[in-house]
Design a protein that fits this description.
Elements (H helix, E strand, L loop, with lengths): L33 E10 L7 E2 L12 E4 L22 H8 L5 E6 L1
C-alpha cells in the first residue's frame, strides 16, 4: 500500500503482488474477518479538510469498533447511532452533513 492506495487480501496472498512486506492485523473472530477500526476519516484528497467520523467518548488510545472486512462488496457501513454511548456522535449523520463529490474515506485498523 501507499499513502493514497491500499489493497485488502483475505486469507492467503501471492507475495509477487507486494512491493514490500505484507502487514497483518489479527482477526477479532475465529469465524469472520473482523478487525478493530480505530479511525474513520472523511474529506477531499489533497486538502486539509479531513474530519474524524469516529469520535470516541473518553478516548485513551485503545478504542476501536469491530468491522467486518468483506472483499465481495464495495459497501462501507458507517454506524448510524452512537454505538450504545461508545461514541459522542452519530457518524452517519456527520457523513451525510459533510457529503461532497470527489471525497474519500481513510480507515485505520489497529
Amino acid at each position: 500500500s501507499t499513502d493514497t492506495e491500499a489493497e485488502l487480501q483475505l486469507g492467503g496472498y501471492d507475495p509477487a503482488t507486494c512491493t514490500d512486506l505484507m502487514q497483518y492485523t489479527p482477526s477479532l473472530s475465529s469465524t469472520d474477518f473482523i478487525v478493530g477500526v480505530t479511525s474513520l476519516t472523511y474529506g477531499h484528497p489533497g486538502r486539509n479538510d479531513h474530519v474524524q467520523l469516529l469520535k470516541f467518548n473518553s478516548p485513551t488510545g485503545g478504542e476501536y469498533l469491530p468491522a467486518i472486512m468483506d472483499s465481495g462488496t464495495s459497501c462501507l457501513v458507517i454506524p448510524g447511532d452512537n454505538m450504545g454511548g461508545k461514541l459522542q456522535n452519530n457518524p452517519f449523520d456527520d457523513f451525510t452533513n459533510l457529503w461532497d463529490e470527489d471525497t474519500s474515506f481513510w480507515v485505520t485498523i489497529g
